[in-house]
Design brief:
Length: about 500
């Protein structure tokens, strides 16, 4: 770790920790903090007050929402050495996977409980478990606030949380390995693993009659696998309350997308090859087990507004298709119903006809196929809320959109069709904004074939990880390189 400190890359978790207040007064008065941040951002326009404005903004303990953080990024430094967001990504390239793995492995042992403002005691084991979730996939955000441990406290006993912390990460394990790691019999470990997995807190596959498991990230993972609980009183407050305000930004600027976009149909492709893992019909054909579930976003977003699932928009609700071992898990856990290939294809075709984006989990296994739209998808609407100024948009597709302006008749059909609302009609014809996810929907309605998707140059294409576990680790490594992983320790807060 001494060598890593000398490199001074991305601030590192410990360095960021020293720079930012984590609790107490840092988030006691949200209105005051937001007001101060707005004043600071305004002051930042004056070069002489740039440093003062930066110091007034908070990353890990403040009351800023993700949207407010994003609005002040021009004056907001994310590390102690005053790197810009773009600078963080560049310096991260200098950090090896081995060095980043040291950060992931360097989890502190928390021994002190944390007392929230209302007097609720958060046992140390839950603080460690939330710190662990920062090391899986997209994490949960560094900002902590009262209530951010409620989900874990309501869904894990202290013994279960302690057991979970001993389980291997980034790989499948069986009951014997779980028992050995936790210091218990394989029979007891199996009972615990099965129970946690059927509650959507641990993944499970069955191979040759043997159950294998792996620990879950927040998303894709616990959030999706507990969707049958969304309508329980207080559940959504718990699960989303676990997230720090920085989650929205860091998860969209992490060097890879959560899901990637595939062409809605082959007819939208120009004179180009059909790239691997981008043909949704082939993805369906190669899997013998398929399941469909309600769209998580079109379920929880209306519920959070006091509406019924599916009421927030006019798009179909039962559209989330899982494949292979993932589908088997959905079926066995009662969060998806089994369907055949014909029904799966019809569901996706209906989504295409409804003007939706077809997204697939960011893996070669393509465990999930989603039907999304900018007006109802949490991921896509997040891109829109941030004005498209997010790094992940570079990674959502290995295609690019080409427009033949000589063919274009300026009819405006593409403007009306775009699910990201990013095509604008001008005197020079339709102009594509920076929110384009290369879905190809605009090409489906172009009457003269002026719009086509073509493969990006080979050296610009994104290499997909093989499985969800591989994606978890790849994202965690990149986030470690960027300084996005920070551990909360009540003892350090008290010392401040």
């Amino acid at each position: 770790m001494e060598e890593l400190s000398r490199r001074n890359f991305v601030g590192m978790a410990a360095t960021v920790a020293a720079a930012v207040p984590m609790a107490g007064s840092a988030f006691a008065d949200e209105k005051s903090a937001v007001s101060s941040a707005a004043d600071a951002a305004s002051a930042a326009k004056d070069g002489e007050t740039q440093a003062a404005a930066t110091d007034a903004l908070t990353f890990n303990g403040g009351a800023l929402t993700s949207a407010e953080q994003h609005a002040t990024l021009d004056s907001y430094d994310w590390t102690t050495d005053r790197l810009t967001v773009q600078g963080i990504a560049e310096q991260a390239k200098e950090v090896s996977d081995e060095e980043a793995q040291v950060i992931l492995d360097n989890e502190p042992t928390i021994t002190q409980d944390y007392v929230q403002a209302d007097g609720t005691v958060v046992p140390a084991v839950y603080i460690m478990l939330r710190n662990r979730l920062q090391r899986l996939g997209q994490g949960v955000g560094n900002e902590v606030k009262d209530g951010c441990w409620d989900y874990l406290m309501h869904n894990f006993t202290e013994d279960e949380a302690a057991f979970y912390l001993k389980l291997p990460m980034y790989r499948y394990f069986n009951d014997e390995e779980a028992g050995e790691a936790a210091g218990m019999s394989s029979e007891d470990a199996k009972d615990l693993c099965d129970d946690l997995s059927y509650r959507g807190l641990l993944n499970r596959v069955t191979r040759a009659g043997v159950n294998f498991y792996h620990t879950l990230a927040y998303a894709h993972g616990m959030l999706e696998f507990t969707m049958n609980r969304y309508e329980e009183d207080g559940y959504l407050n718990d699960v989303f309350g676990m997230l720090g305000a920085d989650y929205s930004y860091t998860s969209r600027n992490q060097g890879s997308a959560m899901y990637y976009t595939v062409p809605v149909e082959k007819d939208v492709l120009g004179e180009t090859e059909v790239l691997p893992y981008t043909d949704w019909e082939k993805i369906i054909d190669r899997n013998e087990v398929l399941a469909v579930s309600p769209c998580q976003c079109r379920t929880f977003k209306p519920l959070m507004k006091g509406m019924k699932p599916g009421e927030l928009c006019d798009h179909p609700l039962e559209t989330c298709i899982s494949t292979g071992e993932q589908a088997q898990y959905y079926i066995e856990n009662g969060i998806g119903r089994q369907i055949d290939k014909d029904e799966a294809k019809q569901i996706i075709q209906n989504s295409v006809d409804a003007g939706m984006v077809i997204e697939v989990m960011n893996t070669k296994q393509c465990d999930v196929i989603c039907s999304c739209h900018g007006d109802c998808c949490a991921i896509l609407s997040g891109y829109i809320a941030m004005g498209g100024d997010v790094e992940n948009l570079k990674y959502v597709s290995n295609y690019q959109l080409e427009v033949d302006r000589e063919k274009c008749i300026k009819c405006g059909a593409c403007v009306d069709r775009c699910p990201m609302f990013t095509i604008e009609m001008t005197d020079d014809g339709p102009q594509v904004g920076n929110l384009c996810v290369r879905c190809g929907q605009c090409a489906t309605v172009c009457p003269v074939g002026a719009r086509k998707l073509v493969a990006r140059p080979e050296d610009e294409r994104v290499e997909l990880p093989n499985s969800m576990i591989d994606d978890y680790r790849a994202k965690a490594l990149e986030r470690a390189k960027r300084g996005y992983i920070k551990d909360f320790d009540p003892a350090k807060v008290q010392a401040q």
